[in-house]
């Protein structure tokens, strides 16, 4: 009897690609069927918590580290059995920062995206958001609910204060920024319509907008980038644990990482993948540059989540 | 109010109702790659993309099916509750009303989460559609209830009594006398139930079965990462579809009864 | 009164399905939530061990949240009032007007509901945005210098809410007006009332059940609306529902989120009851 | 005080004319009744005068002025609707106050006027009730009071007493008539009750099938009905046949002299009202034709008999129950010659 | 065929009893009328028998069986509502078919029965109309037809003819009575019209203020009314005063012998119906008391006079208009001694 693996995945282009390419390739390799469950970290987290750690509906999840770290703390995941993940060793150090509990399967670096036609002076530094009067009232920021929003706070804390923990400085900076357009997701429509002319943007998204003909570009700011990460985790009581490991290893393989790079312009986390010259513009970060991506103390954020969210809400205008 | 002024006033409101939708419809014919306005040239290209997108087609079918089921269940339960409320509730009237409105008064997210935990705790889980349909029924029930009870306020109980005196039992009285005479409220309530179920997001998002999807979820997930006019094309088609349901119900069932 | 047992019992069958549905799938699940609202906040988990009143204390002691309740109620009142003013004439026209356009009018009235909220908000952005059609047109005609702030504020939220909630106002009023015997207006006219007066003193009060239903629906819906305020309001105007959603599914503060949500619901229920009391129709049995 | 004139008024609801080219001229302060069988167009006529229904053709003038463009509320009418049309959301008092408030009367006067009219319709103590808490007849009285209390120029009453008992009806008639005379209100009174039309009206309009059959004073209508239909509608009639000879018709009742050009030997139909016939015991020795009692109908103050004459003809007779006859009794019938009127010859 | 018995039935809407402990026993196939002034509780009683209103106290039995537990639709009643309660969304035909369909009659029979009853109520040709397209009287006839066409065991009629003219009403009475007799339907007929109650009923129940004042046959009620109130309600009465002396009361009409224990010298009130009085020309030479005509009211078949007697007392008299007197005329009045009945002494 054929085994079935429930594969949680993001929607839209991700779902399409998983349906058309990733799923079938995995089936071909392992003979197991794939059921895609489209969603995001919030809903998978809610489902897992409702079901309880003992009877999870999934065998693995790939989601933002900020969600994953919370679930991990609550005991849903197991420490990875590295013997079953032959590709783990080839990952960049950035992708292995969870002490063997998870492995980052996809990285979308975030820099500053902007409209080349609506902005005269191109941004170079995050500080330009404060300093360039052209941006006033047309700056987009992710809200705090989005993991990017949390990173915005930590980044600004770091830039304007002592370190990522100096959130007083971060909030003070946000206060000074004045009125911004907050989005929960989908910064692109605002950018396309010109309501937003500059915002934190992941490079893959900018690449796709540019390929579709929108006059946009994106810079790596002087102070550094952050990223949308997607950490692969295996459920401690996974109904299909073997398949889950096979699938995790499959995702981390150079082949699949390369495919995702071509499709979504992510930065591959497997160091064996080389970005070809014609993709350099769309995938500007790879190799040694991967270490320039800033990472954060999610435990700090998770523990102070309520307080930070409230301060954010009180600060942003 | 003079008649022309009144007509113009209504036309302006209709225009207001239509405006953002018109924008979406126009955007769906965009030949360019973005949801931009005004569109860069006109074409049906995104409709073709949409029709060939099995994922969306499946989501639409799922949504239609769930909306229909929800409408029927909510319609029946809500109408019965409204009948109780108007004619039998007595001193409990205010209580019944607030209770029936509770699903609206309670934030949808919280209802979704509590229901999610509940279905898992009773072993139903989200492997099937029970949780989601229950959620849809909960959310749509107040709309049926409110519409039906408002239209029953002008129902003369003597009509039921007359039918009763002629030998009609409970169900016949309802089907042949009351239902036709409160039709606008029932149809209005059921249309609301259908449309809202077709459109409800949070409940579906939390309670959807593993591996399935409704149109709003599909659109939401799609729009997180895609910005093409395909979404507008999908929406336009769903407008046309639901409009058809509305116009057909008006034509077939008639939303007005001539009492006087 | 000599009421036979059967008669006392039978009407209960009408409410039974709703009572069971609400009892099993709303009340029972919510018991959990009520308990949740008294739990300790978690440290990196949804909730911690032990119980507290602190979640409610936080709500009442921080003006930030009280202010949100005020904002939310204010937006709710305005939205309801505007819906009533805009919707009533349309309801009247649908109920009493020529039949030729009724199907079309009906479909138009429902049309705001037919577009998913995200797409609808996109439509509003195109119309109301700083760079939107309205601002561009007005600037183009030289009527204004800079863009009018139509969006990312309470005005934008109210415009969008009024738009999507109008159907909930119009339909109940329409069916209430249909139930009014036109000979009552004739009687008023015969007693010397002008068209306007007979509308004001006869049709309007007799359509009160519809108005009441519509207002309650719109008010309650605007209290709990969160997608429109977050997309159109640009998250600048803080409303309770948005904060509740943030707390519950975005930042996993279940105890505080539950407390907030219950406060929101209780506030809504109180206003529904008050509104019911204010509009009580004594002429009814 | 208003003169109302109706000219060639017609109304067609789409199934043929409900009111068919009627013309009436109602003098200032006149009390006129529309009398006719159910469905003959009385309500429709009233509604056109009030302005609730547009006429299909014809004109309505108040004091010579065409009122097509005068809105209902400017016509200063008081109307009682056949189905009452009480405002369900107002108490009895509020219903009555409505028209007075429209006339901007001071609060005090409104209160006293309402108290007075409530007393007249015998509903003092009911002022705080809602219409649904009243019996049918009580509702009808409120409807009547609501129209009368405003003391309008024109009063349009559509069967305003149909649900009242004889005693109350009698009192209401007097009340209406007094007010109408005192204020000089031009009144159109719709009724199906010929006795009511007769006792109250200056003139009666008899309608059939949307047309006017006769307009005249009550005694005109009763004693000189325009045709058999009118005669039968406003009371009972017996048709008596007889042969003409020598300007006299010989009938079962004896010889009746007739005016009019009837050829000798022609068979003539004469009309005779049941109450014009006297009924006497067979052995009373009086003159009269013998007859047999077929059946009798007792209605309290009156008895209706069906009698068979010697000729086999059946006649109805109405008498007071001073002397009662049983079915099968032989009696004598007699009718004064001047109570017969000719209806025409038998074809 | 059902016997209906009501025991101590009471209904209180909250403002004091509308029906106050009434008991009636209606025999199988009996035709009984509830007669009484507006608001006396007729409709309420009917609704309790039908099962539409719960009684506050008391019992209703059909054939000895308490019907509290029998749902209305199982009681096999036919009811005409005072306000008709026609189904507004159904044509006349559909309204009539409804009850027959409930009885699962074959389509053919339904069609023929409807055609027949429509013919009886004279509405053939109106079957496709909606109620709103009918006149008041037409609606009432549909309501009547709808209740009759099912030929129920019990018929409850609430003022079913109030909006019909005399002729039609007469025909409807015959129609109802015929059907009722033929099928043997136990019937409760509510009316405010005493003549109607008298002519149609086996027995009449007179109600006042929620209580039964008298139950009896029509002539019982009219000729031996239980009290002045009943007497006045079912017809007009004159109160004539006189001094008792020698078992005789001397009145303005002359001496009237009385039965009963009245002390000599007591002042007694006697009742006399207006139609019992004969009116004669002053110079007719007959015996009688002289009187003066104050006013007269002409109602077609009858004339009502108000007369002033020599004593100053005012009496009402009803006569046929064979001889007419003008206001102010001097006349002679006479009434047979056996038409007076004593009401009691003056306090
Ligand atoms: N729903 C009600 N609430 C309160 N009082 C009522 C209600 N219905 C009737 N009544 C009162 O009860 C009394 C009896 O009413 P009912 O309708 O039985 O009178 P009725 O004899 O049928 O009079 P009518 O001849 O005028 O129709 C009246 O005084 C009426 O005002
Ligand atoms: N709205 C309508 N549509 C069609 N026909 C109508 C309408 N109203 C009345 N009629 C018809 O017009 C005719 C006259 O109606 P009207 O109401 O004037 O009669 P009426 O004399 O008042 O009778 P009644 O004594 O029964 O009240 C009737 O045959 C009736 O069926
Ligand atoms: N599309 C508008 C309908 C939204 C219904 N939401 C219900 C909210 C319950 N709290
Ligand atoms: Mg009429
Ligand atoms: Mg009654």
Automatic annotation (TrEMBL), chain B:
The membrane topology noted for this protein in its Swiss-Prot or TrEMBL record is:
Multi-pass membrane protein
Q: Which PROSITE patterns match?
A: ABC_TM1 (PS50928)
Its name, as the record gives it, is: ABC-type spermidine/putrescine transport system, permease component II
* Source organism superkingdom: Bacteria
Q: Any transmembrane segments, and where?
A: 12-37, 64-86, 98-123, 129-150, 185-207, 227-249
Task: Keyword check for Transmembrane helix, yes or no.
Answer: yes
What keywords appear on the UniProt entry?
Cell inner membrane, Cell membrane, Membrane, Transmembrane, Transmembrane helix, Transport
What are its GO cellular component terms?
Answer: plasma membrane
Cellular location(s):
Cell inner membrane; Cell membrane
Q: What is the lineage of its organism?
A: Bacteria, Pseudomonadati, Pseudomonadota, Alphaproteobacteria, Hyphomicrobiales
Segments forming domain ABC transmembrane type-1: 60-249
| GO BP term, example | transmembrane transport
Automatic annotation (TrEMBL), chain C:
Record-level GO cellular component terms:
plasma membrane
TM region positions? 12-31, 69-91, 103-122, 150-171, 210-232, 252-275
One GO term under biological process is: transmembrane transport
Which keywords does this Swiss-Prot/TrEMBL entry list? Answer: Cell membrane, Membrane, Transmembrane, Transmembrane helix, Transport
Residues in ABC transmembrane type-1 domain copies: 69-275
The yes or no answer to whether the keyword Transmembrane helix is present is yes
Q: Which CDD domains match?
A: TM_PBP2
Cellular compartment(s) = Cell membrane
Question: Do you know which InterPro entries this protein is assigned to?
Answer: MetI-like, MetI-like_sf
Instruction: State the annotated membrane topology for this chain.
Output: Multi-pass membrane protein
Keyword Transport on entry: yes
Gene3D superfamilies in the record, alphabetically? Answer: MetI-like (1.10.3720.10)
Q: Which protein family is it in? A: Belongs to the binding-protein-dependent transport system permease family. CysTW subfamily.
| Name of the protein in question | ABC-type spermidine/putrescine transport system, permease component I
UniProtKB/TrEMBL annotation, chains D, E:
Enzyme Commission identifier(s): 7.6.2.11
Q: Does the keyword Translocase apply?
A: yes
Quote the subcellular location field of this record: Cell inner membrane
Mind naming one GO cellular-component term on file for this protein?
ATP-binding cassette (ABC) transporter complex
**What Pfam families does the entry give?**
ABC_tran, TOBE_2
Which top-rank group of organisms is this from? Bacteria
Q: Mind telling me which PANTHER family this protein's record contains? A: SPERMIDINE/PUTRESCINE IMPORT ATP-BINDING PROTEIN POTA (PTHR42781), SPERMIDINE_PUTRESCINE IMPORT ATP-BINDING PROTEIN POTA (PTHR42781:SF4)
Assembly and partners?
A: The complex is composed of two ATP-binding proteins (PotA), two transmembrane proteins (PotB and PotC) and a solute-binding protein (PotD).
Which family is it part of?
Belongs to the ABC transporter superfamily. Spermidine/putrescine importer (TC 3.A.1.11.1) family.
Q: What does this protein do?
A: Part of the ABC transporter complex PotABCD involved in spermidine/putrescine import. Responsible for energy coupling to the transport system.
Return the protein name: Spermidine/putrescine import ATP-binding protein PotA
Q: Which organism is it from?
A: Neorhizobium galegae bv. orientalis str. HAMBI 540
Q: Which gene encodes it?
A: potA
